[in-house]
Amino acid sequence: MDFYNQTGKMAIGSRLRQLTDKITADAADIYKLYQIDLQPKWFPVFYALAQGNLTITGIARQIGHSHPSVSKIVAEMSDKGLVTEKKDKEDGRKNMVSLSRKGKVLAEKIKDQYSDVTNAVEAISKEAQHDLWKAIEEWEFLLNRKSLLQYVAEQKKQRESKKVRIIPFKPIYAEAFKKLNEEWISAYFKMEDSDYKALDHPKEYILNKGGAILVALYEDEPVGVCALIKMDDPEYDYELAKMAVSPKVQGKSIGWLLGQAIIEKAKSLGAKKLYLESNTMLKPAINLYYKLGFKKVAGRATPYERCNIQMELEL
Amino acid sequence: MDFYNQTGKMAIGSRLRQLTDKITADAADIYKLYQIDLQPKWFPVFYALAQGNLTITGIARQIGHSHPSVSKIVAEMSDKGLVTEKKDKEDGRKNMVSLSRKGKVLAEKIKDQYSDVTNAVEAISKEAQHDLWKAIEEWEFLLNRKSLLQYVAEQKKQRESKKVRIIPFKPIYAEAFKKLNEEWISAYFKMEDSDYKALDHPKEYILNKGGAILVALYEDEPVGVCALIKMDDPEYDYELAKMAVSPKVQGKSIGWLLGQAIIEKAKSLGAKKLYLESNTMLKPAINLYYKLGFKKVAGRATPYERCNIQMELEL
DNA sequence: TATATTTGCGTAATTAGTTACGTAAAAAAC
DNA sequence: GTTTTTTACGTAACTAATTACGCAAATATA
């Protein structure tokens, strides 16, 4: 079965963890080889302190651990006499940590181990074609900018948007056309007379007057609709109206696909300028209109009470 | 201070762990995004079982975990009804684990997540110059062949052998010449008369007769010695004898360096063939002689009781 | 100046794995 | 055919980190 033929990358976390384990498993033995009485997990703290005294949170920030982790490690190192703790005089909350004399001696003694381990890692790198060190650096950078979750979410959206088909209105979608619009209108406002007219009789009030309606299908179910209504106006050819997308299919860019399709439709009908009315309460919708290229314009008469913003798009 | 200027690589374990954490931190949210009721840590087990039924240790081997870890995960998955456990009929110790119907449904449902995550990882890889995936693969391979500890030990040896100097005998090393030899001889055997002669009077018994002595210094302390004794023999020019290295400096290739130097010395004296006597009890020594190129030969008369092996080297 | 918020840090609980160890079944050795 | 060794697997304890939480000191705000 081809079910798992691509599953490899899915386990990248597990795989990384195992490589980490393999590398750190040897760490204790390496310290033993040099007769350095230091636990491997202490090393980042030790390293930070060798460069200067720091507070608990200061160390944590530098080495990228949580502060409780540092707190514990410092306590352990203190037990072994490697570090000394001292309350900061100026800020009573701070715990200044520094290497003790014994710690400094160890820092001197560990030099050889440093250079040998560094050379060993570099020797391994030389045997390898691909630079693990630089690859880690890059991944750290990339994942700092955008998390793996975000990358995955993008892929999901992209894949799902491929399942969306935009098609012209057919009578079997009359019910969906009404329901999808009614859903959001009555959630935010109240259905008005002019709503019922257009939603109950799309053929008469929209199509026969030279308008158009598009339907978005997701897995062959109607989940979004949008209409172009012919306007009797010297400036505008059509009004973009009755756009509705089911909340069940959010995050699949259906509004965006529908909007783009209706603009294409308007162009093919020879339109030069589109108009729409909305309400600033509907932030995602307004956002979408901006993304589609619409711009805010000054007010004009409207049959809808709920409208407080008007927009236009030059094609 | 240049103390830590090369310390970066030393923390490769820590750094890898942190990248792992960053990647796995998102894992739970990714499962949530797809409404897959699976803990990320279950994934490798789930994956293995989707390919066929397995025993606990079978799963552990496949996914590279310890068996107690698998045992625990299977118990958790069993609680959730994702897998079923069943004693093997033929081998009562074995616990055959398989995906339940619910598990199989989930395996079907998770497909989309697989492909999205795979694509996300590949998208990140495309943004990076260095291929983390391949780099991990290479490191796994290289570390399987030779552990990090071994790599480090090699570096240590190499560095330390640079601290070794091989110099000609001087009277101030007379005491060391005797002590180093006495140390190992009396540990394994008993000092004999001929030992005392050569060790107490190296000038008379070795040097003045046309032989040579080399001393290995480690940090300017004499830690190893070796002699070439002129032989009155038609076949052999010199006997390699009185080789001793302090056990305190083991693992620094001092025997090897001393052996090579004494062979060079023999060549420069115009020797064509070297001879030596030893005892098979002294395995590291015999090994060293083989490495230096010596070959076993049939017996000849010897003043030493302790000898049971004789070797020669053609120069 | 009194109060609210932020910061530093310690303790406790949790997590995802490990090693250590014990038991029982199967296989090998005598 | 009995004894010893190996194998399968579960439980318990440990490890190296985390998050959650609470207290006290410092800082900001009204």
From TrEMBL, chains A, B:
Q: Pfam families annotated for this entry? A: Acetyltransf_1, MarR_2
Alphabetically sorted, this entry's keywords are:
Transferase
- Gene3D superfamilies linked: 3.40.630.30, Winged helix-like DNA-binding domain superfamily/Winged helix DNA-binding domain
PROSITE patterns to which the protein is assigned, alphabetical: GNAT (PS51186), HTH_MARR_2 (PS50995)
Instruction: Classify the source by domain of life.
Output: Bacteria
Family annotation (InterPro entries): Acyl_CoA_acyltransferase, ArsR-like_HTH, GNAT_dom, HTH_MarR-typ, NAT_camello-type, WH-like_DNA-bd_sf, WH_DNA-bd_sf
Cited SUPFAM superfamilies: Acyl-CoA N-acyltransferases (Nat), Winged helix' DNA-binding domain
Give residue ranges for domain N-acetyltransferase.
Answer: 175-315
Please list the residue ranges annotated as the HTH marR-type domain.
9-157
Q: What is this protein called?
A: MarR family transcriptional regulator
Q: Which organism is it from?
A: Flavihumibacter stibioxidans
